[in-house]
């Protein structure tokens, strides 16, 4: 579940295993807009190695612009916008376009460091009165991606590297 500014508010264990353990991050670092434009980059890959990272960055800028329109006096929203404008030329370019229309994301592939590529269908449920969104990832039944998600459900967020 994400807020109007794409802060991750709630997640399950499988989401943590697929992307990262959000419980291990300070609240500030749970913001997907900040992570899309400012990193960190894991293994040189942007935003969990997801196949549509550039599309997501555009979506994130649009969603943040819509939030800024709804909450023009919010220090959280204006602070995030100011930070991104100062630190990310890509965000500044997208912000200057004044685009607020966003299309649906139907499918994306995560490049997971332990189990390889995982292709998921992406559905989002808007909770309008709370200005939140529930994002649901599902794999095609019987696919290698479904098997990879099953494995991730067992592995969880455990580190699999051996101590030296």
Give a description of the structure.
With 164 residues, the chain is α+β, with helices and mostly antiparallel strands. The chain is 39% helix and 15% strand. The chain has helices at residues 13-18, 32-38, 53-70, 75-87, 89-96, 144-155, and strands spanning 107-112, 116-127, 132-138. The protein has a 3-stranded antiparallel sheet with strand order 1-2-3. Strand 1 (107-112) and strand 2 (116-127) form a beta hairpin. Helix 2 (32-38) packs across helix 3. The longest helix is centred in the middle third of the chain and has 18 residues, at 53-70. The protein is globular and about 45 Å long. The mean pLDDT is 87.
Summarize this structure as a short list of keywords or feature phrases.
3-stranded antiparallel β-sheet, 164 residues, globular, alpha+beta
User: Can you summarize the main beta sheet?
Assistant: 3 strands, antiparallel
What would the principal axes of the Cα set say about the shape?
Answer: globular
The strand line-up of the biggest sheet is: 1-2-3
Q: Approximately how much helix is present in the residues?
A: 25-40%
Fraction of residues in β-strands: 15-25%
Low-confidence stretches: none
Q: Compute the separation of the termini in Å.
A: 37 Å
Q: How much is the average pLDDT?
A: 87
The arrangement of helices and strands along the chain is: HHHHHEEEH
Radius of gyration (Å)? 16 Å
> Structural class of the secondary structure composition?
alpha+beta
Number of strands: 3
Number of helices: 6
């Amino acid at each position: 579940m994400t807020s109007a500014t794409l802060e991750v508010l709630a997640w399950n264990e499988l989401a943590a295993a697929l992307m990262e353990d959000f419980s291990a991050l300070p609240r500030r670092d749970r913001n997907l807009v900040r992570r899309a434009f400012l990193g960190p980059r894991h293994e040189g890959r942007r935003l969990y190695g997801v196949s549509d990272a550039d599309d997501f960055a555009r979506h994130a800028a649009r969603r943040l612009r819509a939030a800024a329109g709804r909450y023009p006096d919010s220090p959280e929203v204006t602070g995030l916008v100011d930070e991104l404008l100062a630190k990310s030329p890509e965000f500044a370019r997208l912000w200057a376009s004044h685009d607020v229309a966003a299309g649906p994301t139907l499918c994306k592939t995560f490049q997971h460091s332990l189990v390889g590529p995982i292709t998921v269908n992406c559905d989002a449920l808007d909770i309008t009165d709370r200005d939140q969104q529930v994002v649901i990832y599902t794999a095609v039944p019987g696919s290698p991606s479904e098997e990879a998600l099953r494995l991730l459900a067992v592995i969880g967020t455990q580190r699999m590297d051996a101590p030296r």
